[in-house]
TrEMBL record:
Alphabetized GO MF terms: ADP binding; DNA binding
Similarity comment: family membership: Belongs to the AfsR/DnrI/RedD regulatory family.
Matching InterPro entries: AfsR-DnrI-RedD_regulator, BTAD, NB-ARC, OmpR/PhoB-type_DNA-bd, P-loop_NTPase, Sig_transdc_resp-reg_C-effctor, TPR-like_helical_dom_sf, TPR_rpt
SUPFAM superfamilies linked: C-terminal effector domain of the bipartite response regulators, P-loop containing nucleoside triphosphate hydrolases, TPR-like
Biological-process GO terms, alphabetical: phosphorelay signal transduction system; regulation of DNA-templated transcription
SMART domains with a match to the protein in the record: BTAD, TPR, Trans_reg_C
Record has Isomerase as a keyword: no
Protein name: SARP family transcriptional regulator
Residue spans of the TPR repeats: 827-860
Length: 919
């Protein structure tokens, strides 16, 4: 595994050798991914980080080129396959411990764990400081780089303070004076640095220098900020003046609960909190998320790490917004507790709620206090408790997003999601010990998957593992038991039951939102659009969006993208229990039927727009269910956008329908997806869907549907080189089509035979089958089939070197496709014509043909066939001596194939590597 360094120049090492990372823009892309190592970073976020808020139009295309090179860098660093593309995001799947900035955070976190001796803290923090190599992200520029650099520099200074305190605890002031003295000059407003430097100077017998440093810092604060030093620094100053032994002094309340034992991960969220706090205008931060996701743990842990920045104290209150047993705590009750903590005697409390709130805000006006408002129910409960003056900060946690607070109180939002797999594993390590976790790696993976990254669920499982001493495999099996996962996540007390904790959020919903939440569990996943939920529930779109908003604000659903919603696995299990116990079987069946009709009828309409010349489906669709609302797609572009967004859902729905006995839907959905999957070059998904569809067709007893499935499966076997399997499937299809007298089906099968023999370079046999297909299409009066078969005959004649005959066949095919208006067919023919012209040495004519093919494929959104024509275009450009143009065409093909995750990318990489300019 490589060694990735960001705390200085961006560098990568493997086996002690430095890996070339490339030019600054490429280093910025790598840094933008490493900053969130192990997490998916949306393409839009990457573009913002690399180019800022006003990126050039070519940013997305340029980003893909940079990512191709980053992939090569990571491969050379010993992490092949680490750059993972998922939907519209990229994830650099490397161990965060191999990235210095994450290693620094991990070492600092370990140093803060209970039970660490001063010597152990010193050793850990020394390791962390040693990772610093100068200015972070040195040599790079841009808004994101500048902001990130500031956050990391501040984090380094905070680590240095913690290290210095640990060193002083073991009576070692010399190194502290040297290191902190340099840092104090860089951070003249960092009072904790100034304080610990003064303490080190006194410990070294140099109190006069400590007093001089205080005077210099005080002058700087007055000149720059117009303020005196804070209480902590003043207290240290008084100690030095009195000639007492140095030590940390803290004034004001210290109400924070104990830090969370075993806290780990959340590096990016902690950095965001640091960044939000560094904004002088920030008055409040709202940490929101679903029940059990660790909002309080994050808030309390961060509050402990920054307590020194709030020298006038830390206030904490549990507002009990979702408490099952106690009433919600109103702001008047909360503020009375705060006034008591701030030292206001009971007999001096002003009468009345408003007067007490006013006194509270007055007390905070000239202080720097951290106010942690935990478990808030709504904005009205929180708003009166916010500090009014700069310097203090309110940190709010809530299951609701508190949008009103964000809009009217200038609060900053910090949504909290589930743990990554790496963070989840580290949580188990910290609670169970590394030896026990390492002893059962497979069981640990199963536990992490079953708990779905929810810290509460992982903590409950870890507690049961400690108490019972059962093998982790036994606990994993219990969690995997269908329908009993939530029972396994039950500690016996109310706050330790996942089901109970979820119920507090569910009970706070309106009745209509509760119904949507329950029925959402019937959706096959992985995400659902608002339109699909409207069909599922039978509600009108406007009302559905309003209820989805209620569920999102309550953190019971997540709006993954605008208008797209996902449910956490454990919340889905909870909702499934609820719908089984609340909604009748007839209601659930009707909801599923509406949803399936929504997807099937929209997918079929989308396929009709993508390929209007395609023959009608062999297994006709039933009418749409009442209250189902399939989406209305205006044109081919709209169809492509819809299929791009929905195809993971449609594939999941194919699997779901097969498992639940909806066999007609299984076959029809697969048929409706085929054109889109072909144009994406997604052979694996296409093959799996058609295998499922074949079994459904057999259960239906429909021979036409079975035959179509066999030809589609054979096509995939051919592409994979499984020729014997392909021949067997095609023969089954041909026998079925012949038995029912389906000439067009027979012709399709012969075209697939031609494709099979062509892959084996038996071009004579391929031409023979293509001609048989042509004759059958003519007998069936199928003009689209004739045009396709003519192109196929021409292509295989070209493979035989009979280029003039090939051109004649292809020109006939093109004329027929043009008359039919079949643009997809035209794109294929132009590519065939280009190949024949290229082989005849007519490179300019070939390039012109390929340009035609590319324009058509691009208009159709046929990305895979774009790559084929781009590859052929590069061949023709190279043959014409235009190396740069060949490289450009192949690079574009490689970017698309890489984004599609297609195996053909390797062949294009070889072509690029062999170019003269690449040697």
């Amino acid at each position: 595994m490589g060694d990735f360094r960001l705390l200085g120049p961006v560098e990568v090492y493997h086996g002690g050798a430095r890996v070339d990372v490339g030019h600054p823009r490429q280093r910025t892309v790598l840094a933008a991914l490493l900053a969130d190592a192990g997490r998916a970073v949306p393409v839009g976020t990457l573009i913002d980080r690399v180019w800022g808020q006003e990126p050039p139009r070519s940013a997305r295309q340029s980003l893909h080129a940079h990512l191709t090179r980053v992939r090569q860098v990571v491969q050379r660093a010993g992490a092949p396959g680490a750059l993972v593309h998922t939907s519209d995001s990229y994830r650099l799947d490397v161990d965060p411990a191999t990235v210095d900035v994450h290693r620094l955070a991990e070492l600092t976190g370990r140093s803060e764990q209970p039970g660490q001796t001063a010597e152990q803290r010193v050793a850990l923090l020394r390791q962390g400081l040693a990772l610093w190599r100068g200015e972070p992200l040195a040599g790079l520029g841009g808004e994101w780089v500048t902001q990130t650099r500031q956050i990391w520099r501040r984090r380094y200074a905070d680590t240095a303070v913690a290290w210095a305190r640990a060193e002083l605890a073991v009576a070692n002031p010399g190194d502290v004076i040297r290191v902190v003295g340099d840092l104090a000059a860089q951070f003249p407003l960092h009072e904790a640095l100034a304080a610990v430097l003064m303490q080190a100077l006194v410990a070294a017998g140099r109190p006069a220098e400590a007093l001089a440093h205080y005077a210099a810092v005080r002058r700087y604060l007055i000149d720059e900020l117009g303020t005196e030093p804070g209480a902590d620094l003043q207290a240290v100053h008084r100690v030095v003046l009195r000639g007492e032994a140095p030590g940390g002094v803290r004034s004001g309340p210290a109400q924070l609960p104990a830090d969370i034992a075993g806290f780990c991960g959340r590096t990016a969220h902690l950095a965001q909190l640091d960044a939000l706090h560094d904004r002088e205008s920030a008055r409040a931060v709202v940490v929101s998320g679903m029940a059990g996701v660790g909002k309080t743990a994050l808030a309390v842990h961060w509050a402990h790490t920054v307590a020194g920045r709030f020298p006038d104290g830390q206030l904490y209150v549990n507002l009990r917004g979702f408490d099952a047993e106690e009433a919600v705590l109103g702001p008047a009750d909360a503020v009375r507790g705060f006034l008591d903590a701030l030292g206001v005697p009971a007999d001096q409390l002003p009468p009345g709620r408003d007067a007490q709130l006013g006194r509270y805000r007055t007390l905070l006006a000239d202080r720097r206090v951290l106010v942690v408002l935990d478990n808030a129910r709504d904005a009205e409960q929180v708003r009166p408790l916010l500090p009014a003056a700069p310097g203090s900060l309110a940190l709010v946690t809530s299951r609701h997003q508190l949008t009103g607070l964000l809009a009217t109180a200038d609060a900053q939002a910090l949504p909290l999601d589930i743990l990554t797999d790496g963070e989840a594993r580290e949580l188990l390590v910290r609670r169970l010990g590394r030896e026990r976790v390492d002893a059962e790696p497979a069981a640990v993976e199963e536990i992490i998957a079953a708990c779905a990254g929810l810290p509460l669920a992982l903590a409950i499982t870890a507690a049961r593992a400690r108490q019972s001493r059962f093998p982790l495999a036994a606990l994993a099996a219990e969690l995997a038991e269908e329908g009993h996962r939530l029972d396994a996540l039950d500690t016996g007390d109310v706050a330790g039951r996942v089901r109970s904790v979820f119920s507090w959020s569910y009970d706070a919903l309106s009745g209509a939102a509760q119904r949507v939440f329950r029925l959402f569990s019937l959706h096959p996943g992985p995400s659902a659009s608002a339109a699909a939920v409207a069909s599922l529930t039978g509600l009108r779109p406007a009302g559905t969006r309003r209820l989805l908003g209620e569920l999102t604000r309550a953190s019971l659903l997540t709006e993954q993208l605008p208008g797209r919603y996902v449910s956490h696995d454990l919340l889905r299990a909870y909702a499934a229990d609820l719908t089984t116990g609340t909604d009748s079987a007839a209601e659930r069946d009707a909801a599923v039927r509406r949803l399936l009709d929504h997807y099937l009828h929209t997918a079929y309409a989308a396929d009709r727009l993508l390929d209007p010349a395609r023959g009608a489906i062999e297994l006709p669709l039933a009418p749409v269910a009442a209250d189902a609302r399939p989406e209305q797609l205006a044109d081919r572009q709209a169809a492509t956008r819809w299929l791009t967004a929905e195809h993971p859902v449609l594939l999941a729905t194919v699997k779901y329908t097969a498992e639940t006995g909806h066999d007609a839907y299984t076959w029809q959905l697969t048929w409706s997806l085929s054109t889109y999957l072909d144009r994406r070059g997604d052979g694996a998904a296409r093959a799996a869907a058609w295998q499922t569809a074949l079994r459904a067709a057999e259960r239906l007893g429909d021979r036409t549907a079975q035959a179509r499935a066999h030809t589609s499966i054979a096509h995939t076997h051919t592409l994979r080189g499984q020729y014997a399997d392909s021949i067997a499937a095609l023969q089954q299809a041909l026998d079925l089509y012949t038995a029912i007298g389906h000439r067009t089906g027979q012709a399709h099968t012969h075209r697939n035979f031609a494709h099979l023999w062509g892959h084996q370079r038996r071009y004579d046999a391929a031409v023979d089958h293509a001609r048989q297909a042509l004759a059958l299409y003519r007998a069936a009066a199928d003009e689209r089939g004739q045009a396709d078969a003519l192109n196929q005959v021409g292509w295989y004649l070209a493979m035989l070197g009979r280029y003039d005959e090939a051109l004649e066949c292809c020109r006939h095919s093109l004329a027929l496709h043009e008359r039919l208006g079949n643009r997809a067919g035209q794109a294929h023919v132009w590519d065939s014509l280009g190949y024949a012209q290229h082989r005849l040495g007519r490179h300019d004519e070939a390039i012109e043909c390929y340009d035609h093919a590319l324009r058509l494929a691009g208009d159709l959104g046929d990305r895979y066939n774009q790559t084929q024509s781009l590859t052929h275009l590069g061949d023709a450009q190279l043959a014409a001596g235009r190396v740069a143009r060949a490289e450009r065409a192949w690079s574009e093909a490689l970017d698309i194939l890489t984004e599609l995750g297609h195996a053909d990318a390797e062949e294009v990489r070889r072509k690029l590597a062999a170019l003269p300019s690449a040697r």
